[in-house]
Amino acid sequence: MNVRLPAWAALAALFMAAPALAQELPPYLHDRGTGVPTSMFGTYVESGHFLVYPFVEWYADHNLEYKPSELGYGLEQDYRGKYNATEGLVFVAYGFAENFEAELEAAVISAALEKSPTDPSAMPAEVEESGLGDVEGQIRWRWLRETASRPEGFAFFETVFPLQKSRRLIGTQDWEFSLGAGLTHGYHWGTMTVRAGLEYAREEGKVDAGEYAIEYLKKLSRSWRMVAVIEGEQLDEVSFIPEIQWHFARRATLKLNTGIGLTENATDFAPEAGVLFTF
Fold first, then answer.
1. 19: confidence class by pLDDT, cuts 50, 70, 90
2. In whole angstroms, how large is the CA radius of gyration of the chain?
3. Which tens digits make up the pLDDT trace of 173-186?
4. Which uninterrupted H or E stretch holds 78?
């Protein structure tokens, strides 16, 4: 006798069903599998798969460095003010080939900056802006596959689009480009990734050191993984970011992390929460 499931039940069964038994992986791939690393911590995409990650991030910084001139108020001097923001983002990635992936991330943001008590400029006591945040695209190429004796190598190129020319507190006002590379190697105690890059901001017209990171990933069980990252720009903007990942369904993973500023110019506190979907 054939039994037809309601549409909602069939969809739930597809979403929640346990995945088929994976091919046995070598020990160095135990934590992450065979996918190409994306720009999201501890997140990899297989060839022919889509990742969709809607998430929310909050920012709190009691001493954000700013120049009134950069906000349109004339004075060319550094001050520090209190900054808070809430950002909603969507990240998508697709594995075009075994060693190549492309991704896009877009945000909407609401941000506020309180003026420093020592700032004599005409800037109001609080500046608020909301709307489209950063929109950026990235491609990643794995140029070296890992073996038991050597690490995996990958390279990336990123573009941030200038879609907020009239805003000063949010978004990007001119083209920005980044080029970098990284290495990954798995051990019995976890997987280490290091990456670094150079960046070019057309508004400033110069090449500078870009973002760098050291990442630790460990698969704790079939459903749980942990990530710990030291990430920075220059030497005065360094954060520690712990993350927990709960693979609660066949195609869905809950990701929770928080950025904790370790240096004066890093954001004090930046928690993030979202669900990563794999198709």
1. very low
2. 21
3. 999 999 999 999 99
4. none
In the block, residue with structure tokens 């976890």: 190
Tokens of 136: 């950026």
What does the block give as tokens for 81? 């003010």
Closest CA to 81 of 49, 31, 110, 116: 116
* Band (15; pLDDT cuts 50, 70, 90): low
Buried b (16+ CB within 10 A) or exposed e, 210-231: bbbbebbbbbeeeeebbbbbeb
List of E strands, the chain: 36-37, 44-45, 50-66, 79-97, 100-114, 126-144, 152-160, 176-187, 190-201, 206-219, 224-233, 237-249, 252-261, 269-278
246 and 224 Cβ atoms separated by less than 8 Å:
yes
Domain ranges of the chain: 24-213
Token pair for residue 207? 């090449």
Q: What backbone phi and psi angles, to 5 degrees, belong to 120?
A: -90, 5
Pairing of strands 44-45, 36-37: antiparallel
Strands 126-144 and 44-45, bridge-based pairing: unpaired
Q: What is the pLDDT of residues 24-50, one digit of tens each?
A: 889 999 999 999 999 999 999 999 999
Query: What pLDDT, on a 0 to 100 scale, did the predictor assign at position 46?
Result: 96
